[in-house]
Each structure stands twice: as structure tokens, then as C-alpha cells.
């Protein structure tokens, strides 16, 4: 019976993904093609970007929201505080009974979450554990979606002979995806419009409120008059040159 359970566990492990679907070439190409989407932002372009996002074309809005969140003096602080406040909270695995099976499942889940690794697809220097994973998931509060690729680690055995599993959760920016068919699809090429379906069990999609849609409108109408004021000061802020001669 134990051998049959072990073989079934190994069969289920073979269905898990142990390597990344996103190649280094795909990430490098995306970073080389990166541009500033808010440099010439106008009400017309923002309206087009937001309409496209709601139609499933996620990339323009995702790039704009990412830049606004990093550069606006108010949004940057508020968004960081909101994400970190949730990531700092304690967590625990609760069971509905205290049977041996329930306690065994609790131990397996505690091992999984205590040993998981969270990182960023475009910045491997960023690395953490469960707290970082929660912080990355909180990105959905602003951008409506936060997507992680799940790369399972090779399972290990404990002293009882049971398999223990954990994984690496790789945060993938929203501009790597499209949602035109009502479900997320991965864009294999940088300029692609049609993606491929996400493999079930290998991706985690977090859904949130999408507050950056309203924040981006507020950002635009806050910065348009500020931009005009700076241009006016640049042109007219310096006193003119007065020449005096006895001719």
C-alpha cells in the first residue's frame, strides 16, 4: 500500500513544471524594447490605453501604471505602504480537526510556504520568501492582476518517508500577457498580440481592485498644469537683458 501511494505521488510530480517557460532571451528582448509610456501622456492617449486594457490589451496600461507608480510622489509611497502592511502580517495554517491526516497536511503546507522562494522574472536580484510573495500579489490592488509563474522544486522526503514539496514563485510583469479572450495568455514574443494559454497548475493569477485606472487619471490632470507651469517658468522665469548705451 505504501509503495502504491509513493508511485502515485511520483506520477503526480511528473505533471508539475520544474523549469521556467520564460526564456532569458524573451526577458532580455523585453527590457531592450522598454520605453517611457508617460513622457507625452495626454487625455486622448490615456483614454485609448485604458480602453485597450479593458478590451484585453494589457501592455500599454501596464507599462504606464508601472511608471506612474514609481514616479508619482504620492502614489509611490501609498502603494508601497499598502503592499508592505499586508506582507508583514503573521500567518498560520488552520485545520478543522486534529486528526493525524489533518496534522500531516498542515505540516506539508507549513513546509511548502516556509521553504518557497519568491523572485522577479526581470530582476533576479530580488529574492525572498512568503512575505515577498504576498507583497507581489498585492500588486493586483493597483493593476487588477498580479501573475506568478510556479516552478516546483524537486520533492524531498522527511524522516517518515513522506514527500515534501515547495516551489519558486516568479513574478512576471503584466505586459507579458494579454486578456482578449477573458483569460490570461502569455505573449511568447515581444510584439505579439496573440498569446498562448497558461498551463494549468503552473501559473497563479491574483485578481484585485485595479485602483491604478483611477489613479492614472488623477495623475494626468495633476501633472498637466504642473508641466505647463514649468514650461512657462522656463521660458519667462529669467529676466530679460537690458542694454544701455550713450549712442
How does the SSE layout of this entry go?
Layout: H1 2-14, H2 24-32, H3 43-54, H4 59-71, H5 73-87, H6 100-115, E1 117-120, E2 123-128, H7 130-137, H8 139-143, E3 145-152, E4 156-157, E5 163-164, E6 167-172, E7 177-178, E8 185-186, E9 196-197, E10 203-207, H9 212-236
Parallel strand pairs: 1-6
Antiparallel strand pairs: 1-2, 3-6, 3-10, 4-5, 7-8, 8-9
Helix pairs in contact: 3-4, 4-5, 4-9, 5-7
Structural write-up:
The chain has a 5-stranded mixed sheet. The chain has a 3-stranded antiparallel sheet with strand order 7-8-9, with no helix packed on it. Residues 1-14 have low confidence and may be disordered. It has 9 helices and 10 strands. It is α+β, with helices and mostly antiparallel strands and 247 residues long. The protein has one domain (26-228). It has helices spanning 2-14, 24-32, 43-54, 59-71, 73-87, 100-115, 130-137, 139-143, 212-236, and strands spanning 117-120, 123-128, 145-152, 156-157, 163-164, 167-172, 177-178, 185-186, 196-197, 203-207.
User: Low-confidence runs (pLDDT<50, min 5 residues)?
Assistant: 1-14
Number of domains: 1
Helical content (DSSP H or I, runs of 4+): 40-55%
Instruction: Give the SSE order as H and E letters.
Output: HHHHHHEEHHEEEEEEEEH
Shape by Cα distribution: elongated
- The tally of strands reads 10
The description of the largest β-sheet is:
5 strands, mixed
Calculate the mean pLDDT score and round it: 88
What fraction of residues sit in β-strands? 15-25%
Alpha-beta content class: alpha+beta
Amino acid at each position: 500500500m505504501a509503495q502504491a501511494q509513493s508511485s502515485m505521488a511520483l506520477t503526480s510530480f511528473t505533471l508539475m513544471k520544474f523549469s521556467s517557460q520564460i526564456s532569458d532571451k524573451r526577458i532580455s528582448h523585453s527590457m531592450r524594447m522598454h520605453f517611457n509610456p508617460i513622457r507625452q501622456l495626454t487625455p486622448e492617449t490615456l483614454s485609448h490605453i485604458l480602453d485597450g486594457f479593458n478590451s484585453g490589451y494589457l501592455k500599454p496600461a501596464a507599462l504606464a501604471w508601472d511608471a506612474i507608480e514609481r514616479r508619482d510622489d504620492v502614489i509611490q509611497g501609498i502603494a508601497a505602504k499598502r503592499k508592505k502592511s499586508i506582507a508583514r502580517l503573521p500567518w498560520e495554517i488552520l485545520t478543522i480537526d486534529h486528526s493525524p491526516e489533518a496534522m500531516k497536511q498542515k505540516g506539508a503546507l507549513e513546509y511548502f510556504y516556509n521553504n518557497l522562494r519568491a523572485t522577479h522574472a526581470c530582476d533576479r536580484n530580488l529574492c525572498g520568501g512568503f512575505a515577498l510573495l504576498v507583497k507581489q500579489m498585492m500588486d493586483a490592488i493597483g493593476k487588477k492582476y498580479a501573475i506568478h509563474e510556479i516552478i516546483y522544486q524537486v520533492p524531498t522526503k522527511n524522516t517518515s518517508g513522506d514527500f515534501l514539496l515547495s516551489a519558486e514563485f516568479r513574478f512576471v510583469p503584466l505586459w507579458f500577457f494579454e486578456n482578449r479572450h477573458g483569460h490570461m495568455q502569455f505573449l511568447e514574443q515581444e510584439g505579439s498580440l496573440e498569446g498562448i494559454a497558461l498551463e494549468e497548475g503552473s501559473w497563479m493569477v491574483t485578481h484585485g481592485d485595479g485602483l491604478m485606472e483611477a489613479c492614472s487619471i488623477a495623475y494626468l490632470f495633476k501633472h498637466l498644469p504642473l508641466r505647463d507651469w514649468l514650461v512657462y517658468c522656463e521660458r519667462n522665469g529669467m529676466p530679460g537683458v537690458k542694454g544701455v548705451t550713450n549712442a
